[in-house]
Amino acid sequence: MQDIRQKIKKSIKEILLFLFQYEMPIESIQVESTKKEEHGDYTTNIALYMSKICKEKPMDLGKKILNEMEKKENIFKKIEIVNPGFINFFLEADGWGTLLNFKDDDEATLNKIHLKKLLKGYNIKSKLTLNEIESAQYVHSRICSIIKIFEEEGISVQGSQDTMNYEVDHFEKRMIKKIIDYPCVIKQAIACEKPDEMITYMLELSGLFYQFHERTFFRKLDKNRLSVTLNIIDHIRIMIKEILNNVEIDAPNKM
């Protein structure tokens, strides 16, 4: 799974080294999801943070970083610098699809093994209410049902992954951002020895699906939008099933 925030951080680290011969720890570079659509998809305050160190005004430093970033990356529709020195990143429409077409790399696979070992020392299941368990289970079963219905009509998730050049809307972006946060959530849970963060993540995923399900009439979606939707919700299903299984809770296909 491609972590776009990590990709931006890595590029910023390389740019600072190239422009100023400054070796900055990647964990010190802040890249966050934006709260407002007009601010793009991701934002960083690196120009403000590095202004004194580089002896440049934040806006001037931001422009230099922006110029180098545009040379390095082609996944952004636009990169902008705004006062007092924030750099905002707008992903290309087809960039969202590539984020979901993933296979676990070696680090992600190893982290999942470490997470299972960590979970053995905690009785996470006992901390969950029956309502929380059933809520997550329902999301899994409902997604299974939706996908099965369309697969029986010849529309499969596997066939949908090449149509992600569709312009996703703001809420779909929120879901994709949450999905691609999964490896980081696992890594953080291991580093802090707080496996209950996985439960918080699962419940947030479930909450997003409930909101999306309420506002979506699947039968009224055109082919491209339906393909995008099936791809997104199938990833939510995968994450929820994996987390439930890790805490020894069944993820039923039917409820």
Automatic annotation (TrEMBL):
Gene3D superfamilies registered for this protein in UniProt: Arginyl tRNA synthetase N-terminal domain, Isoleucyl-tRNA Synthetase, Domain 1
Family annotation (Pfam families): Arg_tRNA_synt_N, DALR_1
EC number(s) on file: 6.1.1.19
Q: Where is the Arginyl tRNA synthetase N-terminal domain?
A: 6-91
Kindly give the InterPro entries that the UniProt entry links to this protein. Answer: Arg-tRNA-ligase (IPR001278), Arg-tRNA-synth_N (IPR005148), Arg-tRNA-synth_N_sf (IPR036695), DALR_anticod-bd (IPR008909), tRNAsynth_Ia_anticodon-bd (IPR009080)
Q: Keyword annotations for this protein? A: ATP-binding, Ligase, Nucleotide-binding
Please state what the protein is called.
arginine--tRNA ligase
Q: Where is the DALR anticodon binding domain?
A: 136-255
**Which top EC class applies here?**
ligase
Gene Ontology biological process terms, A to Z: arginyl-tRNA aminoacylation
Q: Which reaction does it catalyse?
A: tRNA(Arg) + L-arginine + ATP = L-arginyl-tRNA(Arg) + AMP + diphosphate
UniProt GO MF annotations: arginine-tRNA ligase activity; ATP binding
Q: Name one GO cellular component term.
A: cytoplasm
